[in-house]
Every structure is written in C-alpha cells, then in structure tokens.
Amino acid sequence: MIELRDVHLTLPSAAGPVAILRGVDLSVEPGASVSVVGPSGSGKSSLMAIVGGIERPTSGTVRIDGTDLAGLDEDGLASFRLERVGILFQSFHLIPTMTALENVALPLELAGRQGAFAVARSLLGEVGLSERAAHYPGQLSGGEQQRVALARALVNRPRLLLADEPTGNLDGDTGRAVIDLVFAAAAARGTTLLLITHDPALAARCGRRMVMERGRLHEAAAVARPLELTAR
Amino acid sequence: MSRLSAWSLALRLAARDLRGTGSSFIVLLAALTLGVAIIAAVGILNRGVGTALSRDARVLLGGDVELEQANAPIAEADLARIVPPGAELGRVVETSTLATSASERSLAVSLKAVDGLYPLVGAVRLDPPLPLAEALRDRGAVVEPALLARLGMAVGDRVRVGEVMVRIAATLVREPDRVGGLFSLGPRMIVADATLEAARILQPGALARYEYRLALPEGIDAPGFVAELAQRFPDAGWRARSPRDVQPQVTRFTDRLATFLTLAGLTALLTGGLGIALTIETHLARRTATIATLKCLGASGAQVFRIYLGQVLLLAAAGTALGLVLGLLLPLLTRLLPEGTLPVAPDPGLYPMPLLLAAAAGLVTTFVFALWPLAIAREISPAGLFRALVAPPRRWPRRSCLALLAVAVLILAGIAIISVPQPGIGAWFVLTVAAAALLLWGLTRLILLGARRFGHKGGFALRLALANLHRPGSSSPRVIVGLGAGVTLLVAVAALAANLRREIADSLPTRAPALYLIDIQAPQRDTLAAILAEVPGARLEQLLPSLRARVVRIKGRPVEQVPIGSEVAWTVRRDRGLTYAATMPEGSELVAGAWWPADYAGPPLVSIDEEIARGYGVGIGDSLGFNVLGRLIEARIANIRREVDWSGGRLDFLFILDPATLQGAPHSFVASAGLPATEEPGLLDLLARRLPNVTPISLREIVARATELLARIELAVMAVAGVTLSGGVLALAGGILAARQRQRYETVVLKVLGARRAVLLRAFLVEYLVIGAAAAAVGGLLGSLAAWVVVDRVMHLPFSPAPFPLAGVLLLTVAAVLAVGAVSLWRLIGLPAAPVLREA
C-alpha cells in the first residue's frame, strides 16, 4: 500500500533551506496499521503530508496503492486523495461555515457522487452524531468535532487513512472514544492506517510501530532508548 | 463531472461558505451599488431624453418641416415654389434686442415675433392662463419670469422695445418649440409680428433668424420632403430641417453630459474596485485554512478557484442588482429639478440596454479586481495545515489566470467605450485611466520607497506607521492609489475652476472691451461716435461690417458631401458671421498666402482661419461657396490666418472677404467700446433712446452670466468628483477592514508588552496620517498636473496654481482619513488581550 524509497524533503525558510526528511524508507502492506512516534519537529507530519500527496519530496520515490505520486500534477494529486486517502487532523479542520452533515458530505460532493447527503448521514450515525447533523463546528465539542472529521475522512471509503495526532486536542476519555472509533472503522473496512502520535499507549495499539528522529524513520524495536522518553 | 454540475457544486459551496460573513462585504456591495447606480441612472436618463425627443421632435421643431434663413425673409416667390399645396405655413422671427423698463433699466432679451398660426403644433402655456393670441393683441408680450425679476417689473407693466412700448400680458410657463439648455444671453420675450414691425428693430442686415414652419398635408413624408428640397435648391440660403434632424442637435449636448457622467460612474467603480480587491483579499486570507482543508479533501485548484469565483460572482450579482434598483429610482429625482435644466423632460421607461451595460460594467469590474487575489488563493498549499514552516505563498498568479485578467481588462475597456454615447471620448478615458493608474502607482511606490529608506528614523509611532506602509501584503499602497485617484479629480476640478474664474471674472475685464454693440446701420455710425463722445472715458475700439452667411460649398462640392473635422463642424450647421476688410486686421498674422491689395476689385477672395483650413481640408486657391442673403458667392482662398485668439475679447471673424465683393450687400456693423464701469448705465440709456435698434451687450453681463454658469457647472462637476472620491473612501474602508485583523493582534501584543492605550492610539493614528498625507500628496500633484494640461495646453490660457482650493482639498483628505481611522480604532484599542491571544 505504501512504498517510500530514500525520500528526502528540504524546505526553504527565511533562514535558509531546512532538511526535514533525510532518506526515509517505508513499506506498508494493505490493511496494516502503522504508528509513527517522534519528537516535535522530527518530520512526522511531513512524512504524512508526503504519503497523502500534499507535499512533494525533494528526492526519492513515493508509491501509494500502486500509484507513483511523482507522475501526478497538482490536480492529479487532488483526485488521488479524493478517491483513495482520508485524513484526520489534530485540529479537526472542519469548515466553520458548514454544518456537520455538509462537512461530511463535502468529499462526495467534490467527487460529484449522487446521494452525498444520505451517505454522509449514515456515516454521522456510525460515529454517533445523527442528532448533531445540523450543528456547525462552533456548536460542537472537541470530541464531537473530531468524530465529524472521522466521518468525513471515511465517507469516500478510502484505502488509506492518515491520522495526524487525532487525539492531541482532546482529553483522555474523549480521545480514547475517538481512537476506538478510528481503529474499529479501519478494521471494518480493511483500510490501511498510518497514525502519527505522541502517545506510546496509542502507538502500541497499531500492528507496527515506527519512530521518526531527525528526519529518519526506524522500526520501534531498533531504537536504543525507551520509547517513553523519545515520545514525550 | 460536467462543467454545469461543476459550477452548480461551486455555487452551492460558495453560498455555504458565505454563512456568517455578515458585514465583511459592505465595502464591496457599496462600491458596486454606487458605480452601477450612476451608470444605469445616467444611461436611463439619456435614453429617456432621446425617446422624449423623438416623440416630441415635431413639437420642438414647430412643424413637420422648418426652413430657416438668417437676416432676411425668404422671398415670397421662393416660398411659393417650396410650399406644397395644402400645407400650412407659419413664420417666426427670432432676434435679440434691448428691453427698457419705465425706470430706465435695460436688459438684452431674446425676442421672438410670431404670426397668428403660432404654434402650428404643441401649445403655449401662460400665467395667467390666457390664449396666446389674446396676450399678444395690442402690443402685448409674454416673457420668461427671469425678465420680470431682473427688470423689477410685474405682469401688466410696460417696457420699451425699439420704438414701441409693449405691455407684459403674461409670463411664459411653457414654450413648446424651445429646447432647454444651459446658456442663453437674455430671457425670452414673445410678441406679435406687427409689434416687431412697429418696433423697427429689423433694419437691413440686422441679426435675425427667419423660421418658416410647415404643417404638411397627409401623404407627404417630412424627411423625404427635406431631402427633395436639398436637391432642388442645393445652394439655398435657407436650411430645411425635419423632426428627424432635431434629435441629433439636442443630443449633441445631452450625449456630452451623459458621457461625462457615465465616465464619472465608471471612475467611481474603478476606484471603488480597489476596495473590492482589498475586501476579497481579506476574505480569502481568512479562508486560507478552509482552502487548504478543501485541497486536503481532494478539491483541485480549479475547484477552489470556481468556488471562490462563484462566491465573488454571487456578491457581485447582489451589489449589481442593488445598483440597478437604485439606478432605476434615481432618474425619478429629475422631476424635482426646475423646468429647463434638461433640454426636454426625459420619457420615463424601462430601457434594457443601459441596465445591461451598467450590470456588465459592475460584474466585469468586480471580476477584474477579484481575479488576482482569487488566482493567488488557488495556489494555497494544503501542506499549510500541517505546519507553519511553508514556503511563502506565491505572489504571482499562474499564466492562464494572467491571460484571463488581460482579457477581462480588455472587456472592461470595451464596456467603458460602448457604454458612453461618444465612444471616442470613451477611448480617451480608457487611455487616461491607464496613464493615471500608472502615474498613481508609480508615485505611491516612490512614497513607499521613501518610507522604507527613512522608516528607521523618528519616534516609535512614526516608525511603526512607516513600517506598516511597506510591509509585505500591506493594503496601504492600494488605499493610497484609490484615495489618490479621488483627490486627483477633486484637485483638478478645484484648480480648473479657480483658474477659469480668475480668467473670466478678473483678467478678461481688464483687457476686453466693456461693451459690444450689434445691428448698427451704416448711417448710424456717426450717431454712435457722437454718443460715445458724450460719455466721459468712453472710446470706440472696433467697428466692423457684419453679415450672416452660410457656407454651402467647399471646393465646388455641397458641404453635405464633404468630410469636415468635428472641431469645425459647427461652422457649417448654421449661418455664420463674416466681414470684409481692405487691409489685414490689426493683430492678425498670415500663415499662408498674401493679403489682397487695398483697392482689389477682381473675383471674390476670402481669408480664412487656420483651424477652418485644417477642418475643411482646403488650402490657398481652393474655393468656398457662401450663401449671402440668397446670393451664392464663390470665393477663392487668398490667405490663411493664424488661429483666432478670442481670449482678448476682440471682435474677429473666421471668414473675411474682400470689400468689393460684399460692400454692395445689405449689412450692419458691430462695434466694441471701452468705458468706465460707472458710465455704463448712462451709455445704455443714451443708446436705448437714440439708437433703439442697436443691441448693446455688456461684458459685465456676460461675465455675470458666465460666472453663474460656471458656478452651476462647477457644482455639478464637484458633485461628480465627490462621487468618485467616495469610491476612494470605499477603498480606504476596504483597507481599514483589511488591516483590522493585523491591528487587533498588534494592539494586544503591544498591550501585553506594556504599551499604554494612548501610545497605541497615536501609533495607529500616525499610520492613517501617513496614508492620508501620501494620498493627498499623490492626488495634489496629479490633479494640479491635470488642471495645468487642460488650462495651458487645451484652453491656451495662463495657468497659475490655486493654493487655497488645493490646500483645502488636501487638508480635507487628511482630516477625513484621520476621522475614519479614529472611529475604526476606538473599539480596537479597548479590546481585552486574553481572548485574542487564545484565538492566536
């Protein structure tokens, strides 16, 4: 499902170029769940942006679900995300001027699918928010907003779900409830899950654990120091 | 997804995204409403005038056909050949003369003598409501109310006209065949034919117009009849017109007015457009996260572009619709104007074309100004959602968007050209706007460069203000350009008016003669000299023979078939004055050919003005045909004089013939005289008694009328410039709203760091002061330049800077910007810090 070979990412900044990823290799089978932990600024989110076709690597190859992303232009990448990738953000990124239902239906509408609102309504039901369909993001709690975001990420039946610190802005209980939903939904659909997190307990729930450190990715077993320290 | 469903989705999402945006689009809506309303209202009014004219043309002409000849009646024999059997024929004579009240106050009047058939069509309305024939019986007269006011008289009083005393029987409420306008030398007086004859004003050669109105019998088509007359009498001294010819003559005036007002509306739309751009940019900046999210969810750049373009179009449609509604209502206000302000009362009606053009102007302007921020928003990277460290957003749109922008600008230019009744002026407007925009932008850049260079000097408030002028993404440059455009117009109008007023009211009387006299008969020349000798300080400056004639042939071809330059086209529309002279007039200068010998007695020769030569496309040796009192004179051009300089008030003629050719024709003389102001009433009195047929025209009177007219025009132009400035104020409002988010954050951070409110207020006020001063400087400079171009280069008058109006406009600008800024800052300064910091 995910094939990264020697991926580098260097970004310009006011203070000069910054090397963010320094030769990342990763191979993930379809249906697997993989967690990535690592300190802030280690390049976790950039890795996710590259896998989601949001960022282009400076060098290296990226194949997702059999597609070489280098061969796609901006709009090709957008279609690729629309059809195959769902993304869950730490800050939810719901559109504030749209209701929960409209937010969930949005990817289907962008894809021009019929019956977008019926599908969205059933997804909202799955995450337990049928009653809140007409509410705007500003009228929902953090946990509810993240559940709406999950429904939106899943509505297109993506083959790959990317979750960037999905519980980072939620309290413990709410976070657990949301993450249970994420794992259950991924398992039920056979969706590949790439989870970025600071939380070792959460990382441990994935089948495979990776660590990102200064732009390099390792299997968790290969890290010399205890995971708890690096992930803090 | 099909194109249609792609757009339907975009519009749906656009509408959703507009929820809760509330008042953010007030500037956009106001700018559009204002510009569209003016363009629509002016277009509707102009169409209304056009429709009313074609409906009332027959009434305005006074019949189906009008024949007009200068100076002498059309010979009875000719009339017998012209008038078809069964037609009704009425005659009207128009001239100017002096009316003197019992208290010896005199006033030049525009006299009209009518026969019993008048008016052949339409109706005269009088106050008190008498039939016209009854009012004119027994030396009766009806007059415009202005005459009574200026002579201090009332209905029933008597006034002397030439050699008779006439009784004012009523005032004129409506004269059906008079087209209103801005300027006429004296108020109207209507008398009967017999009264005019008894007054003995019309001596041979006196300046008068004889108008014959024909009501044609059924079955004769007026335009066809006029065309036939032109063929049968190609060199006739009279001119025939059908109702179809009335409209172009009046619309020359209304078209010019409409062109000017439409361009003012477009200017308001364009300066307001900067406010539109700022509003949209601010809105899209707030939507950065939404756009990045949409892209993360799989929306393509094109979809994002469509969604936000759809949003802009929805808003533009709302603003345009508001503007159209207002544009439909505004013309109703013209009913409040005094009668005669417009040439005819506009025909109320729904005219689709002006509405369409106004709507197109509004929508395309919005598109042009929105395109750049939309194209930049299209490029927002979805990666922005993951971290702050991203490459700065692209400053330049992609090529396809730039091409689209170029096409939109061309379409807007096209709309500007076709939406005005005079497309040539529209084209000039487009070029001027382009040049002015470049100049405004260049000057603004210079100011920003200065701010960057010297921005580190001065106190905290000034440093902050100067830094905000040139920081990346600052809205200040566009605010300066928008306001600067408005100030440019105001300064230009103020400086132009000050120069014209100085020229007319102050300079002209010092070098021009105090009095002009027309219709002097040859034997009266000695009487005139004697009268002038009796008045202390009076002296005769010029005394020239004067005839009226029509130019009927150019190089042997009828004028209708010769292409004539628009700047001299007026010289062939009606009869013109000409004179004869043995020697070259004092102060003239030849540019080609030679003056004829003083005793020349050969075939007719003519001397013409340089501009006429250019406009007619003629040179030395070519011939011009004049119809002088029914006689065709073919004269060869002997010489060409330098363009006549009218600014000194000297009597001069475009056409001067050799004396032998014209001496025998009946003609009168015109004269100019210098005299101390205190002696003017005495001289007028002497003239009225001893030369009653001579009409004196006082320069003082002309200056008073011209100053009055100037004041009216100035007020109108100022009002229009004010509307344009309001476009600039909208740009300012857009800029203030755009800066608000930044100022809010800056205020809070500075407060947290310990800045007192007074310090913050001062810092932001200095920022507005700098913006206001920059706009005033840019506008003052460009406006003065524009006034100089018009006064010195176009009008060829001496230009002098007008410091007081200039200072007034500039101070007003700075004060207005400061006031608007202060109001917007008041709430900002009082904001508690914590909630803002939590948001950030």
From TrEMBL, chain A:
Annotated PANTHER family: IMPORT ATP-BINDING PROTEIN (PTHR24220), TRANSPORTER, PUTATIVE-RELATED (PTHR24220:SF659)
Molecular-function annotations in GO: ATP binding
Ranges where the ABC transporter domain occurs: 2-231
CDD domains per record: ABC_MJ0796_LolCDE_FtsE
Protein name (Swiss-Prot/TrEMBL): ABC transporter ATP-binding protein
Organism: Benzoatithermus flavus
Pfam families in alphabetical order: ABC_tran
Keywords (A to Z) from UniProt: ATP-binding, Nucleotide-binding, Transport
TM region(s), chain numbering: none
InterPro entries reported for this sequence: AAA+_ATPase (IPR003593), ABC_transporter-like_ATP-bd (IPR003439), ABC_transporter-like_CS (IPR017871), ABC_transpr_LolD-like (IPR015854), MacB-like_ATP-bd (IPR017911), P-loop_NTPase (IPR027417)
Keyword ATP-binding: yes
UniProtKB/TrEMBL annotation, chain B:
Domain (ABC3 transporter permease C-terminal): residue spans on this chain: 264-382, 719-831
Residues spanning the membrane: 25-45, 257-278, 312-333, 353-377, 401-420, 426-448, 479-500, 715-738, 759-791, 803-829
Keywords: Cell membrane, Membrane, Transmembrane, Transmembrane helix
Subcellular location: Cell membrane
InterPro entries: ABC3_permease_C (IPR003838), Membrane_comp_ABC_pdt (IPR038766)
Name of the protein in its database record: FtsX-like permease family protein
Upper taxonomic lineage: Bacteria, Pseudomonadati, Pseudomonadota, Alphaproteobacteria, Geminicoccales
Protein's membrane topology: Multi-pass membrane protein
